[in-house]
TrEMBL record:
The keyword Metal-binding does not apply. It is found in: Endoplasmic reticulum membrane; Golgi apparatus membrane. Pfam families: Arv1. Keywords: Endoplasmic reticulum, Golgi apparatus, Lipid metabolism, Lipid transport, Membrane, Sphingolipid metabolism, Transmembrane, Transmembrane helix, Transport. It is a multi-pass membrane protein. One of its GO terms (cellular component) is Golgi membrane. Belongs to the ARV1 family. This is Protein ARV. One of its GO terms (biological process) is intracellular sterol transport. The lineage of its organism: Eukaryota, Fungi, Dikarya, Ascomycota, Pezizomycotina. The keyword Oxidoreductase does not apply. It comes from the Eukaryota. It comes from Salinomyces thailandicus.
């Protein structure tokens, strides 16, 4: 059932068609429903195009998230809308490029004149890590006792499918813990930390929709950025949007939404690290594309070093 995007009050319909003679493409023949509670239009976005929706998504306005989650993409059978599946595929392909390029950036310098060319095969013995400080995140060097870098010996196509699997596994490991926690009926005091929301498809839709900032590296087609810095900024923007989307969907407050995203980020970091280690690539969580987790680890190391505990 659709809702009012201002006060979340349920409404029977979002608009009424009162004349078939007028041109609805020009906004004629359609009257928006007035919310009986707040007396405003239930959903003004039914008359707006996708440019307005995108700008309001960038501004993290709750109304546009409610429009998309409840009035546009939400389904009564609790299944994914086909459009969100296509969007998820697009995000996955961008993840493949960013993760592959980030690891390739940590290897000996490639041609700066081809910033968007497919990353070359990984050399067996990569050079220093993607950050200047070697202590920040371990470099992409083979693990001790491993027989070299298995991935570097594979053809380009095999490497591509590896990174495709890596990014898909990381995405699943981020979504599944959050969906599982929200589907559990926990004891009374624990519901103050983890609310109950048994709609897993809508949860994943909110997380995917709020990850649209992963598309911002399209600007690399115009300007050449420092990849580690831009990747870190994009990754943190995605996390902030994920927290906001969960808070809007669940109405649980930003602290609990941040805790849920933190659980998902830990699961994603662990899966990425294990997969990379299995093929002989070290480098910690940041090498797996979980940049914000690597940033937090680096901050923790600096705090420990400053306190003289390390």
């Amino acid at each position: 059932m659709p809702i009012c995007i201002q006060c979340t009050y349920p409404v029977p319909q979002l608009y009424t068609t009162y004349s078939k003679a007028d041109d609805k493409a020009l906004g004629k023949g359609v009257r928006l429903t007035q919310c009986p509670k707040c007396k405003g239009f239930a959903d003004k976005y039914v008359e707006h195009d996708f440019v307005v929706l995108f700008l309001d998504l960038v501004l993290i306005r709750p109304q546009v998230y409610r429009h998309l989650l409840f009035n546009y993409l939400g389904r009564e059978d609790d299944r994914f809308d086909p459009s969100i599946l296509r969007f998820a595929t697009l995000l996955l392909l961008f993840d493949v490029y960013l993760t592959w390029a980030r690891i390739e950036k940590a290897t000996p310098a490639s041609s700066p004149s081809l910033p968007l060319s497919p990353p070359p095969p990984l050399p067996p013995f990569p050079s220093p890590s993607w950050r200047d400080n070697p202590a920040a995140n371990a470099s992409l060097q083979p693990e001790a006792g491993a027989e070299g870098n298995m991935l570097a010996e594979q053809p380009i196509l095999v490497q591509y499918f590896f990174f495709l699997f890596l990014c898909a596994a990381e995405t699943a490991s981020f979504h599944l813990p959050i969906r599982m926690l929200l589907s559990l009926r926990l004891p009374g005091w624990m519901t103050k930390l983890v609310p109950y929301y048994p709609h897993p498809a809508l949860i994943s839709t909110a997380l995917l929709l709020s990850s649209f900032t992963k598309l911002f590296p399209l600007l690399l087609l115009v300007w050449q950025y420092d990849l580690p810095s831009s990747a870190s900024a994009v990754s943190w923007a995605v996390i902030i949007n994920n927290v906001a989307a969960l808070e809007i969907l669940l109405g649980c407050g930003y602290v609990r939404a941040a805790l849920l995203c933190g659980v998902g980020a830990v699961g994603r970091a662990a899966v990425g690290w294990l997969i990379l280690r299995a093929v002989g690539i070290g480098g910690g969580v940041a090498a797996a594309g979980v940049v914000e987790t690597g940033d937090l680890i680096e901050v923790w190391r600096q705090v420990v070093a400053a306190l003289g505990l390390g």
